[in-house]
Amino acid sequence: MSARQAGVDADSGTAYGRPAPTHRAELAEVGPGTPMGELLRRYWHPIGVAADASETPRKVRVLGEDLILFRDKSGRPGLVYPHCAHRGSSLYYGRVDERGIRCCYHGWLFDVQGRCLDQPCEPGNGAKFRERVRQPWYPVAERYGLVFAYLGPADRKPVLPRYECLENLDEGEMLEANANSIGGGGPAVIPCNWLQHYENIADSFHVPILHGAFSGTQFVDQMGLMPEVSWRVRDAGLEVTAVRRMPDGRTFRRVSEAGLPTLRVVPSPRVGQYGRVESLGWVLPIDDHHFRIYVVGRVKQVGDLARMRSRQNGKLWEELTEEEHQQFPGDYEAMVSQGSIARHSEEHLATSDRGIVMLRRLLQQQVETVAAGGDPAGVSFDPEAKPIEFTAGNYLEDQD
Q1: Where does the Rieske domain lie (predicted)?
Q2: Residue 24 within any structural domain of the chain
């Protein structure tokens, strides 16, 4: 072998000439008309806590769409396209009254379903014309302290689901809703694609590494044990079971679920008590490059959910210095550093990533079902449907 060839072999594998990375657009991108966007639009999504719908119009961005959320003085929440159907002024500057929201420019009034009720500059307040105008709008409903919206085709609107773990409260418990992206490990709005967090639910192996050996014990000691992990598709989601063998001979069985389309059914990693899952989180894709998480949980005291936020080096994310972010990374750093959308073409998935593969396959199947004209898994059109039950929870089992 020549000296030159030896040098080439020694330097092989450099980054020079590598192909441009790509991502799985059909799973990551959520805008109108995209495959995943159309799938997600067949479900209800939280767009705020109840207090976010008020007499002061609020800008919200959901699935790549900019909208205005408000509550009329009769107490009804509304979600409308921002640009007034008259001349396009933003209803963000509108004024809310008993019947709806009124545009600041010429005073056209729209109710929560977009019907034009008043045109004060027109003869007879627009009596002959206003019925021909409708402001684009979306259905909204309130449950568990959150405001949910349905952004899909009107003839395929499912019922807003109920969940057993939030319907049946134990003694002394109450529900609390939180908009601080608990589980995201960082600020309320996280600057990367929603799929990067949703897939994280199926990845139990990162817990003892990222949240244990690498950054120090962020939860409790037993979460630092390397688990035996199994996955299975059930109903409308992926069930993840992580079994940890405790030093005292008992078994710690932890079950999480990634529920369709964006539910994070994850029991508390601090394991304050054993039993069924305490809270549900909805991963809301704001657009292709941002998401946030809304959480509702059973709590003993107001503020318990906020106290669940992750800490690195004993500090909340926003309290860390840049050096500490580097020294004690958490979910935020691991997810956001993948890029605004992960470079799927550059991945090298291994056996521990079986759950990721299964979850992507499940999402792909639902995308194809919707594209073929069907209804995706997990939706119901029965107003009397029973609350959805999950197997998720922390369970401590004695040695046989």
Answers
A1: 44-149
A2: no
pTM of the model: 0.94
**344 closest CA partner among 241, 232, 199, 247:** 199
Are 137 and 257 contained in the same domain? Answer: no
Count of CB atoms situated within 10 Å of the CB of 353: 16
Which tokens sit at 233?
């598709």
User: What's the pLDDT score for residue 314?
Assistant: 80
Beta-carbon count within 10 A of 55 CB = 12
381 backbone dihedrals φ, ψ, rounded to 5°: -115, 15
Calpha distance 59→68 (Å, rounded): 5
pLDDT, averaged across the chain: 94
Q: Which residues contact 400 (CB under 8 A, 6 or more apart)?
A: none
* Whether 273 and 215 share a structural domain: yes
Domains contained in the chain, number:
2
Query: How many Å apart are CA 330 and CA 328, to the nearest integer?
Result: 7
Sign, Cα dihedral of 61, 63, 65, 68: negative
Residue 195 located in a structural domain: yes
Q: Are residues 85 and 179 in the same domain?
A: no
Q: How many CB atoms lie within 10 A of CB 89?
A: 16
User: Which residue range is the domain that position 341 belongs to?
Assistant: 161-375+386-397
- Asked which of 97, 113, 142 is the last residue of a domain, the reply is 142
Residues 168 and 133 occupy one common structural domain: no
- pLDDT, tens digit, 9 for 90 and up, residues 318-338: 999 999 999 999 999 999 999
Q: What is the pLDDT of residues 376-393, one digit of tens each?
A: 999 999 999 999 999 999
256 and 353 in a single domain? The answer is yes
Burial 296-322 (b: 16+ CB within 10 A, else e): bbbbeeeebbeebbbbbeeeebeebee
Residue 337 dihedral angles phi and psi, to the nearest 5°: -70, -10
Residue 39 lies in a domain: no
